[in-house]
């Protein structure tokens, strides 16, 4: 059974050690079919630093953040959502995470789960997602190297426009971004499935 978790986050900066999460969006997919979607806004932890430029990108204010749910409550909602599809005690039952430049998001999720741990109850993102991940940005690097695509930049909005995927003014909203990223992954899967692989004989 194939399980993919499409993931995108909005944050208060670029360093998961000192900055925090303010939005998390997920789409759970099992055997190619979307089976669940979660979109949450959350308050930062008291020690999380907030970079004003990061808030400008998402159009979020500090007052907005103060009105969001407590991070530990959001963590419980995320765990409940993931537990529908994954047995966290089964070593081989994991999602493959997917997203655009998703390594960034995974670093923040790892830090978020650690922050939500207590001395008596540990919480690990690795209980739900495997170590490897799917990222269309990495494939675009190969497309560019092979001369198949040449864009002015490789921001998600630019790439989506090039491949005819709707994102537009919703860029930097985690749910809109991850829906568009899933469409992009599916389009790339279609490209790859149409490539005829030549049989390579041993030398």
SSE topology sketch:
Blueprint: E1 3-11, E2 21-30, E3 33-41, H1 52-58, H2 62-66, H3 71-83, E4 95-98, H4 102-115, E5 129-134, H5 136-145, H6 156-162, H7 174-193
Parallel strand pairs: 1-4, 4-5
Antiparallel strand pairs: 1-2, 2-3
Description of the structure:
The longest helix has 20 residues, at 174-193. The protein starts with a strand and ends in a 10-residue tail after the last helix. The chain has seven helices and five strands. With 203 residues, the protein is α/β, with parallel strands linked by helices. Helix 4 (102-115) links the parallel strand 4 (95-98) and strand 5 (129-134). It has a single domain (3-193), classed as Nucleotidyltransferase, domain 5. The chain has a five-stranded mixed β-sheet with strand order 3-2-1-4-5, with helices on both faces.
CATH topology: Nucleotidyltransferase, domain 5
Distance between the termini: 36 Å
Give the integer mean of the pLDDT values. 92
Helix-and-strand structural type: alpha/beta
> Count the helices. How many?
7
Largest sheet entry: 5 strands, mixed
The proportion of residues in beta strands is 15-25%
CATH superfamily: Ribonuclease H-like superfamily/Ribonuclease H
> Which series of helices and strands comes N to C?
EEEHHHEHEHHH
Examine the secondary-structure arrangement and name the CATH architecture.
2-Layer Sandwich
- Major β-sheet strand ordering: 3-2-1-4-5
Regions with little confidence, pLDDT below 50 for 5+ residues:
198-203
CATH hierarchy class name: Alpha Beta
Shape: globular
């Amino acid at each position: 059974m194939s399980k993919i978790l499409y993931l995108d986050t909005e944050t208060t900066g670029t360093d998961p050690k000192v900055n925090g999460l303010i939005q998390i969006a997920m789409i759970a997919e099992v055997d190619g079919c979307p089976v669940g979607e979660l979109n949450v806004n959350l308050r930062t932890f008291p020690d999380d630093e907030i970079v004003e430029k990061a808030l400008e990108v998402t159009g979020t204010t500090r007052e907005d953040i103060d009105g969001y749910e407590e991070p530990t409550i959001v963590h419980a909602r995320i765990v409940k959502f993931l537990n529908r599809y994954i047995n966290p005690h089964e070593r081989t039952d994991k999602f493959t995470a997917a997203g655009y430049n998703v390594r960034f998001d995974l670093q923040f999720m790892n830090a978020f789960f650690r922050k939500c741990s207590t001395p008596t109850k540990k919480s690990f993102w690795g209980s739900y997602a495997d170590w490897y991940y799917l990222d269309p940005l990495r494939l675009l690097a190969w497309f560019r190297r092979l001369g198949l695509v040449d864009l002015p930049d490789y921001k998600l909005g630019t790439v989506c426009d090039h491949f005819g995927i709707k994102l537009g003014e919703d860029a930097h909203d985690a749910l809109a971004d991850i829906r568009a990223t899933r469409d992009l992954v599916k389009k790339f899967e279609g490209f790859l499935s149409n490539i005829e692989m030549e049989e390579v004989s041993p030398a």
